[in-house]
Amino acid sequence: MTEPPGFVDPARIAAWLSLAARDLARAPLASLAHGVVFLVFALLILAIGWRHGWLLAGAFSGFVLPAPALATGLYELSRRIERGEPATLHDAVSAWRTASPALLRFGVLLAAIGTTWVALCWLVLRVAAGGSGAAPAGGAGELLGLFAADRGAALFIAWTAAGGLLAAIVFAISVVSVPMMLEHRVPLREAVLASVRAVGEQPFTMALWAAVIMTATLLAAVTVVGWVLVVPLLGHASWHAYRDLAGGAR
Fold first, then answer.
1. DSSP state letters, 57-96
2. What angle (nearest 5°) sits at the alpha carbon of residue 202, between those of residues 169 and 239?
3. Helix (H) or strand (E) segment spanning residue 5
4. pLDDT in tens, 116-136
5. How far is CA 12 from CA 7, 15, 19, 232, in A?
6. 165-197 burial string, b = 16+ CB within 10 Å, else e?
7. Cα–Cα distance for residue pair 238/67, rounded to 1 Å
């Protein structure tokens, strides 16, 4: 069967991950530093959420929503490796200092989405706890008890579905837009539309790529220390995904 012009074969996902491993090997310090930052944030959230379970539900899932923008440094590293240029931690940090206003605004937007998700979780848990004047103040055990209650299964399903929908939206608007704004400094609206269009034109490949990202993210969340390796691998792989997608997206 002849594939449509611009078709990106799902098998390319393996190539993206292979190229990501190559980039990680060529710039290990700069790449792993991004993972360490995520690990530190994850540990802080766990430390706070262990005593305030209501915060743990939203924060531990919500803090990954700005990840596409936070991976800007990894995109820059992959771009420099692609060009045969040096790729250092200084180069990754410099990508933020020279980022376009559109990219910075998009980063703020994703941070706002993550914050909104945390607030939404607080509201839902407050209602589920009986609409008391304050959110559940107990630790992680109380949160698990809330999900284990009579209506806990329905609450967990609704929470998971809402989080999945929000993550899907963030994926659709960012999978192409962030690296495109880094490389071409295009306006925010143009980059977001190109990203959504790329997802619409490659539905199966993008669904599979999103599933890979979700699985790797869950693995990192469960192991906690997995963030150190998962973050740079997904960041570098996302740059190579953009390379394959951008031709049909622009």
1. HHHHHHTTTTHHHHTHHHHHHHHHHHTT----HHHHHHHH
2. 75
3. none
4. 888 887 777 766 666 544 444
5. 11, 5, 10, 18
6. ebbeebbbbbbbbbbbbbeeebebeebbbbbbb
7. 11
